[in-house]
Amino acid sequence: MESMKFAKPEEIVTEEGYTLAPFLLRIASSAIDAAFFIASFWLIFFFSYQTNWYPTLDDAFQISSSNVQMVEYQKLSGLVTIKEDGSIADIKSDNYEDYLHAIHDYYFVWNALDNAKNPDPKDYGVKDWNVTVLGLPEDVSLRNNSKYYEFQTNAAGKPIDTEEGVLKATLYKNPKKKDELTDNAKAELKTYFQKAYYATQKLLLSEPYYVALQHHVSNGLMVVLSLAIFIPFLIFYFVLPLFSRLNQTLGKRFMHLMVIDYRGKPLNKWFLSLRALPFLLTAIVAILLDSMVISLTIALVVFMVSWACATFTKKKRALHDFVALSCVAREDETYLIAAKEVEEETEDAQNR
């Protein structure tokens, strides 16, 4: 029966006498380990952050309270609308004046508040409004340089830069009465003030107070995510193999695979510890970069390089196998006996 076990065409017996783990079994083993890891990750993340009834890390880092402050900050700015459920949304309107009024309130009402509701008031004035929002030139002598607005003028016809700009007469159906804008002017102004609206939102969200809240939330979430990642990682990829005689994760145990020295000897536990190093370093780098796209890209590259090694190298060794001088093979009773003997010899040496 043993000889039939080694006769399968997809299996390779090395010159040292052990049978390399078939590729599909390694995939199945990795999938089982990943399933346990992901399930544990979500359990830890859910019970440490998402639930309110549990003594959570969320409370410790005040993530939710900072989120509430961020939302409240945006609501009070007047640059968003409030839905029935209390959440916020961008203004959506066919009337350019709705965008104009929201931006105007931000410049002249919200930023005039100097209290706990707005810890970062800005001294925006008419000049800031005319130049930044209405597109008027800083030099009042160039009063007709804007497509839609111009400076108000005094009795002598000279522009006044201390007053807010007004729409040009050419935009009205009747330039003399200035009672109604043309349809084309309304459409253009809507597009213009939509862009100004989103630019003003960016201005609000770049204020030091809001940025500080964002960093606080981001750092708190990073700690929670780090714990949710490293706790199951240490359990399933480090602790369990370390205390298994055949250095098996749960996936390898189910698939009857083992980790041994690539020369065919039982793997030293110190080298087994090194097996987790590439994964650990990848996770640390991904977390420190604080960029989902870059982090996933690095993880994917490491994963592809590792599996390329496992596919094309002579003894099908992945990246972490080269680091630990290990190899994944079919489970064999002889290695279990050898591992047990090594374990007993180690214990005897420690007891002396």
Walkthrough of the structure:
This protein has helices at 2-5, 23-50, 57-61, 63-77, 96-108, 126-133, 183-205, 208-242, 250-255, 269-275, 277-289, 292-312, 319-324, 333-351, and strands at residues 81-82, 88-89, 149-150, 152-153, 159-160, 166-167, 257-261, 326-330. The strands form 4 sheets. A two-stranded antiparallel sheet has the order 1-2. A two-stranded antiparallel sheet has the order 3-6. It is mainly alpha-helical. The protein has 2 domains: 2-58 and 220-351, no CATH class; 60-213, no CATH class.
Instruction: Report the C-alpha radius of gyration, rounded.
Output: 33 Å
Q: What overall geometry do the principal axes of the alpha carbons give?
A: elongated
Overall structural class, as computed from helix and strand content, comes to: mainly alpha
Per DSSP E runs of 2 or more residues, the count of β-strands stands at 8
Main sheet: strands, sense, barrel: 2 strands, antiparallel
Question: Per DSSP, what share of the residues sits in E-state strands of 2 or more residues?
Answer: 5-15%
Order of helices and strands: HHHHEEHHEEEEHHHEHHHHEH
Mean pLDDT: 84
The number of helical runs is: 14
| Helix share bin | 55-70%
Low-confidence stretches: 1-9
Instruction: Give the spatial strand order of the biggest sheet.
Output: 1-2
Number of domains: 2
* Terminal CA distance: 42 Å
